[in-house]
Specification:
The complex is a heterotrimer of chains A (893), B (176) and C (102). By secondary structure, chain A is mainly alpha-helical. Helix content of chain A is 59%, strand content 3%. Chain A has 32 helices and four strands. In chain A, the strands form two sheets. Chain A has a two-stranded antiparallel ribbon with strand order 1-2. Chain A has a two-stranded antiparallel sheet with strand order 3-4. Chain A is elongated. The N and C termini of chain A lie far apart (130 Å). Chain B is built from six helices and no strands. Chain C has a single domain, classed as Helix Hairpins. Helix content of chain C is 76%, strand content 0%. In chain C, helix 1 packs antiparallel against helix 2 and helix 2 packs antiparallel against helix 3. Chain C is elongated and about 50 Å long.
């Protein structure tokens, strides 16, 4: 085995990418996660964990912490390194896309079919590999500080390593099944991580909610995958969506059997038809790509066994084939349509779109790094990544750029735009800083889905990437804010300052547990913290906040109002934090502005603009879905900018509304460093990541950044067999972007920055919208209540009454009892038989013998006369016999 | 057939005596009557002996059998008097006994007597000669050394033994 | 002369009557009487045969004498036994002497 050659082979390297984090998971779980049993009432366990009197709980040792951190970081850094190696290799190849890095092993050989699983690195993967390891590493660094006082930090690292590993598996997978494996592992990890603080009832309820909600979608997705496999016999992405169908006769294609609207005769689009000029290429399981730099014609594509279509024709992939076969159910839709719809439903669950969005806000019960991961880097991105990946299948049979949307695309467009708008409206009425971000994520994912629905492949992918950066940044910055607020709270406690907390009703503060679980009356964190020595009056200095052994950093991660009334996550309790947490403020600001889409200088602008441009293009042509998308997304973008500004204003601007806010800061130690470093790095990306996608026709900037076509678009467009048409620059969508972004920011500024809220002041929004509307928004349109009434209660009723009472106790137990009775009966029968038989035979025989004996004994009467008589009789008999035999009798007269 | 003369008449008389007496013995409920019937039967037997030219035997029969044995029986009857008034004469198997007896008789008669000594039988049924031995010869036979002296002596021993045995058995043990 | 068979028949009849008496009488003394009958019948038989087959030979009469002796001895002893049994059991029914029973 030539390791060095192997390690230099970009086809092989992608296998190693997920290995790092997965190995870290195994090592941490099995080796380095060591804990010491400590009484649960000790300060080290405190914080959000309730005090269990008299119990011993495991608290991770310091050495174990360090070991786990090292292992975890090594894992992701290794993944990052290898991923970037692969990325650089890929970027070095021109026309990467026709040639890809791929490597597969035979997983299952059933004789009729050979199922291969492996890795695939094509342009889309490359893009993800740039973003995912980076974001994940940032989150890991952040977790070092954030979870520094958590009693289960090692476990946390092992779980996020698994999470990262699963995401990477998903990203480099070359077939739907492996993607689904990564998908499901991430589902599991989200369950484990959301419920990381499992002592808290709302946390584990939220975990269950997340898992169940996504599970519904996953099942349907699996149906789609199964149908796809059934229809095509393969699940490999390239084979389905890129390569020509194995038995397809290219001549027939020439004859015009297929009518899929090959070329979009749109003005300036230059169509690149993928065809290998005249060369029949034999497919191999391992494709060699790296050596073919600059050589177009030799792109060997994995799995292709037929000839490429002749030049000028377009490739008849499996996807197109499926688009022509009618589905085996739901008559009017094609197979591709049904499969597509199912897969989209999977994403609706995983990416928390309407109507399966309910789990995401509750997922905030997990630690902040988890939220960052879920929201930005991993989970929800996975959903959108999956549909971007399967886009050719969705598109097959239709041409979105001509307004002809297939059913999956229509579904995506509608669901996406509805979600985007819907979530944005909820976000404006939320007071919890993390909840705003949660709904913001839902909304932005709606953007992506809608973009994809109308055919904006490049726009959706672009937005995915930029969103990942600024959302991760925002989540972690929010975590830092909360962390600071908790410090402020402890400070207030220690110094006996009165609570600045305001009664719950006045400022529209929310109970932090929405939907899901009941509030845990056992939860009682704040007053019992032992503040160790050294927390002196002016001592906000050096390590006061970091080294307090008794202080848990996350007491109010999921703030519970029961009994204390102070929620460190409630923005109404904040204000003026820019002074005490400047770095956080700046980074949060950058992230927020990127989210809002501040024109030109933020990444969010460019990606959002591209989406709107796609929508505008379609609207001008009179396509209905495009118009819907345009309107919904514009309004949503406006609201996004608005609530972002609101959030920033409430949190950072103005004056401290509470004592706790006045003392909120991160301190100055390792903890704060590890928390702020990722923020800084990500904010850099939040600004610059957009510049790779500037349209070449954009005035001035287009010429600077994209002289030969937008790098991002060019690069990623080659993922598809037919490169999507490139957008022209059009001033109107840009103008729309400008207007909505700046407009929203302005309104937010006017309401929350010019006259920042003071303590006790009501949210002006409530006055504008009116109480009823605002309350509805704040209660998320009562969706959780609806689901509880419609699904949860009936399920519980069913489980209790039907499954338990009827089926389990009635049928199964009844059956078992029946069997028991039957066997008892048989047993009794046998016993009877036994008794009868044994008594009959066993006792009968002796009795018979006895009776026989007694009967014989009757002969022994003791009476001599009887004996003599018998003798005489016998003698007579003998005499007669003798007489007869000797013939004497004949002479008798 | 038989000629009707005194011998034949005597024979039948004695036959009736014997058989009638015998029947009387076995059927009488009163044992004294039975004993008397026995005497009657034995008289018949003695009569037969006379007809058969064995007068000594007849005398002995009367003297010993009747005079001693039958009297002895009467004594025994009298000594066991209280039980002589039994209600039942026969035991439970009397019918079978009657049957067996009848069969035996039939067998003897039909199987032995008639075929051998009956009319046309194998052996003659008339006396071979009329030379009858005298009583004197009988006496001589008893004591003659080359005839039956030994059994004679032994029989006297037997009688002695019997006498002693009878005395011992019937002795009143409480007295001693 | 009277044919031999007549004597024999009478003797046989008397014997069978004796058998009947032995087998069916309850009183022991009655049984003894029946036995005497049987013996008497045997005697008649013997003398009849002597007379008709070898009248000059004394063996017949001698034999008969011995039968007398036997009969006498047996009657004596038998009665002694009966009296002895009577003394201990107060019963002369042979049925009651059933120690052999079982």
């Amino acid at each position: 085995m030539d390791f060095s050659a192997l390690l230099n082979d970009p086809n092989f390297l992608p296998w190693l990418i997920p290995v790092g984090p997965l190995l870290a998971f195994v090592i941490i779980s099995l080796l380095t996660n060591r804990s010491r049993m400590t009484p649960a009432t000790s300060a080290a366990y405190g914080g959000h964990h309730p005090d269990y009197e008299g119990m011993l709980v495991p608290i991770v040792t310091d050495r174990s912490r360090i070991a786990s951190i090292i292992v975890g970081m090594s894992g992701v850094l290794a993944a990052w390194a290898i991923a970037y190696r692969v990325v650089f290799d890929a970027l070095g190849i021109a026309d990467f896309g026709r040639s890809v890095f791929t490597s597969a092993v035979t997983w299952m050989d059933t004789g009729a079919l050979t199922f291969k699983m492996g890795v695939l690195v094509d342009p889309l993967t490359v893009i993800m590999l740039i973003m995912v390891p980076l974001a994940v590493t940032m989150i890991f660094i952040y977790s070092i500080g954030y979870m520094a006082h958590d009693p289960r930090q090692s476990r946390f690292f092992s779980l996020i390593s698994l999470f990262a590993g699963a995401m990477l598996i998903l990203v480099v997978a070359d077939n739907l099944l492996l993607l689904f494996v990564g998908w499901e592992i991430m589902g599991l990890c989200s369950y484990l991580l959301i419920g990381f603080w499992f002592e808290k009832r709302s946390a584990y309820n939220a975990a269950i909610k997340a898992f169940t909600t996504t599970r519904i979608a996953d099942v349907i997705m699996l149906l789609g995958i199964a149908y796809l496999y059934f229809a095509t016999g393969t699940l490999s992405f390239r084979e389905i969506m890129y390569d020509p169908m194995p038995t397809h006769d290219s001549a027939a294609a020439v004859a015009g059997e297929h009518d899929e609207g090959v070329a979009v005769a749109e003005g300036d689009h230059s169509e690149t038809v993928v065809a290998v000029e005249g060369e029949a290429v034999e497919g191999e399981a391992i494709a060699v790509a790296a050596e073919n730099e600059g050589d177009h014609s030799e792109g060997a594509v994995a799995g292709a066994e037929g000839e490429y279509a002749a030049e000028g024709e377009h490739v008849h992939t499996w996807a197109i084939e499926l688009a022509e076969t009618p589905a085996i159910f739901f008559g009017g839709i094609s197979a591709a349509g049904v499969i597509g719809i199912f897969l989209v439903i999977g994403t609706i669950g995983k990416s928390a779109q309407f109507p399966l969005h309910v789990w995401l806000p509750d997922a905030m019960e997990g630690p902040t790094p988890v939220s960052a991961m879920i929201h930005a880097a991993a989970m929800v991105s996975a959903g959108v990544y999956a549909i971007i990946r399967m886009y050719p299948l969705f598109e097959a049979g239709g041409h979105p750029h001509d307004g002809d949307l297939t059913s999956p695309l229509m579904l995506m467009a509608v669901v996406g735009s509805v979600t985007a708008l819907f979530a944005a409206t909820i976000a404006v009425a939320q007071n919890d800083v993390k909840k705003v971000l949660a709904y913001s994520t839902i909304s932005q994912l709606g953007f992506m889905m809608a973009a994809l629905g109308i055919g904006g492949f490049i726009a959706a992918a672009f937005h995915l990437i930029t969103h990942a950066f600024f959302k991760a940044l925002l989540c972690m910055a929010a975590g830092a804010v909360i962390h600071g607020m908790e410090h402020g709270e402890h400070h207030v406690h220690a110094h006996g300052h009165g609570h600045g907390a305001l009664p719950a009703g006045a400022v529209g503060a929310l109970p932090a547990n929405v939907g899901g679980g009941a509030v845990d009356p056992l939860y009682d964190a704040i007053p019992d913290h032992g503040h160790g020595a050294g927390h002196g009056d002016g001592g906000h200095g050096a390590n006061a906040h970091d080294e307090q052994p008794g202080v848990s950093s996350h007491a109010h991660e999921v703030g519970d109002e029961q009994g204390h009334g102070f929620d460190p996550q409630d923005m109404m309790n904040m204000g003026g934090l820019r002074r005490t947490m400047p770095v956080t403020f700046i980074t949060f600001l950058i992230g927020g502005l990127s989210l809002a889409g501040l024109p030109l200088i933020t990444a969010g602008f460019w990606s959002k603009d591209e989406i709107l441009a796609e929508a505008w293009l379609g609207t001008t042509k009179g396509f209905g879905p495009h118009a819907l998308v345009l309107v919904c997304l514009s309004v949503a973008a406006f609201l996004t900018a608005f609530y972002t500004m609101r959030q920033l204003g409430l949190t950072f601007w103005g004056e401290n509304r509470t004592e706790e806010a006045a003392h909120a800061n991160l301190g100055r130690g390792v903890v704060s460093a590890t928390m702020t470093l990722p923020l800084i790095i990500l904010s850099f990306f939040a600004i610059t990541a957009g510049f790779v996608g500037v349209l070449p026709d954009f005035p001035i900037l287009g010429g600077i950044f994209s002289p030969e076509g937008a790098p991002f678009g060019e690069f990623i467009g080659r993922t598809l067999v037919e490169e999507p048409p490139h957008l022209d620059f059009n001033i109107i969508p840009v103008a729309i972007s400008f207007i909505v972004a700046l407009g929203g920011l302005l309104v937010g500024y006017l309401m929350y920055w010019r006259r920042p809220l003071t303590a006790g002041q009501r949210d002006p929004l409530m006055a504008i919208l009116g109480d009823s509307i605002h309350t509805t928004l704040r209660n998320k349109y009562y969706f959780d209540e609806l689901y509880i009434a419609v699904f949860v209660r009936p399920s519980q009723w069913f489980a209790k009454n039907v499954a338990y009472e009827f089926l389990d106790k009635g049928v199964i137990d009844g059956f078992l009892h029946l069997i028991a009775r039957l066997f008892n009966f048989v047993g009794d029968l046998i016993k009877m038989l036994n008794l009868w038989l044994i008594d009959g035979v066993g006792d009968g025989i002796p009795e018979m013998i006895g009776r026989l004996g007694k009967w014989f004994r009757g002969a022994q009467t003791g009476r001599i006369q009887q004996y003599m008589l018998l003798v005489l009789v016998a003698a007579l008999v003998i005499g007669v016999i003798f007489a007869l035999s000797s013939g004497v009798l004949q002479a008798a007269p | 057939m038989l000629e009707l003369n005194a011998t034949t008449l005597a024979f039948f008389v004695f036959a009736i005596l014997s058989l009638g007496g015998a029947l009387g013995v076995v059927t009488s409920s009163n044992l004294i009557h039975g004993a008397l019937y026995l005497i009657l039967s034995l008289f018949g037997g003695a009569g037969f002996f006379v007809l058969l030219s064995a007068p000594f035997m007849a005398a002995v029969q009367v003297l010993v059998y009747i005079g001693a044995i039958a009297i002895l029986i009467i004594f025994a009857v009298m000594l066991t008097r209280s039980m002589t008034r039994m209600t039942e004469v026969y035991n439970r198997q009397w019918w079978l006994s009657a049957l067996v007896g009848t069969l035996l008789l039939l067998m003897l008669a039909l199987g032995v007597i008639f075929p051998v000594w009956g009319e046309g039988g194998m052996l003659p049924n008339q006396p071979v000669s009329n030379e009858v031995a005298t009583t004197e010869a009988l006496g001589v036979a008893f004591v003659s050394g080359d005839q039956f002296v030994l059994p004679f002596e032994i029989s006297s021993l037997l009688l002695t033994g019997a006498m002693i045995g009878a005395i011992v058995l019937a002795r009143d043990t409480e007295a001693s | 002369m009277i044919p031999l068979w007549m004597y024999l028949l009478v003797a046989a009849a008397m014997f069978c009557i004796g058998v009947y008496g032995v087998l069916s009488r309850r009183n022991a003394v009655a049984i003894l009487m029946s036995v005497e009958l049987m013996l008497s019948a045997v005697n008649i038989n013997l003398i009849a045969f002597w007379r008709y087959t070898a009248p000059s030979d004394m063996a017949g009469q001698v034999f008969t004498s011995f039968v007398f002796v036997i009969a006498a001895a047996e009657a004596a002893v038998g009665l002694a036994i009966i009296i002895s049994i009577y003394r201990s059991r107060r019963s002369v029914a042979v049925e009651d002497v059933n120690l052999l029973k079982g």
